[in-house]
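Format is chain and fold; as here:
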Amino acid sequence: MTYSAGNTVLAADFNSFHSDVEDIFEDNNAASVAAGALIFGYGETLLQATVSAGNTITAAQWNNLFMMVHRSAAHQGTSVTLGGSVSAGPYSAGAAIAVDSALATDIAAIRTNKLNFAVSEMTTATMANQAKSGTATWTSSCVHTFTQTFASYDAARHFYNQGGAAQFAFTRSGGSSNAQNTAWTDLGTAVGTVTMGVNTTTQSGSGGTAGDSFDDIVGNAATTRTIWTQASGGSYASNNYKIQCSCNAAKEVYTWTITFTDGHTNGFFDSVDGTLASTATERRSTGTYINSAAPSYNTGSYTQS
């Protein structure tokens, strides 16, 4: 590479930088389901194309490249030191273009931090129609199911690559004062919020078992994947909370199923009452420069038996 002070910068040099930035800001891995590849790409429109050998690389072209680095870094919360900003480059037309020694380092940084996000760039809200609750007395199970639809598979990838996530939580309140109800109340507290991202699934509480994540779902289209399971403790260990998801062959429609299984029995009481509320939320990038459209949701269903 000839990108150094005193040397002529070749189109190949610029295009090498460009390819590394495109990998993050736009997308070089369209339709990929390979776990190591699908996690690249925010899906934004490139500000700059590659350049042709023999042509002068203009200040505007350099500025566009630098702005894509800044926009990616701002979304991630990555600190960069190259010139310019998210809205302007450092160079002026007709003036000498000095080598910026931070360029290669800063591009490497946004690639390393591609799945990071600044909280200020994100919005978390309840998925449309997916704050469900029931007050029936139940003895077997409660099931909350719904579909989540993206415009395309790549739209789903970009949603998750930008730091998007599907999140789940539940609470039980009111009803009779008994150990069975208390066990379900305590389980909801222990679970906290389960967050499924592009390649990780975590909880804000403790005691659960992480299963698959977005990359596993799309890598096994049309099969049901278990995202999370967590059981009560002690005598109530057969009570279980489970989150599952499958996608269609096109990987555009995601069917979510949250199941509450009441497996505990005894001779005194074998039912759960009060209000059992199941909530699904989405975390979505809504920044000025890196953002995704919200997926759509059906009405969903919630049954208690």
Q: What stands out?
A: The mean pLDDT is 97. The CA atoms of residues 131 and 279 lie 4 Å apart.
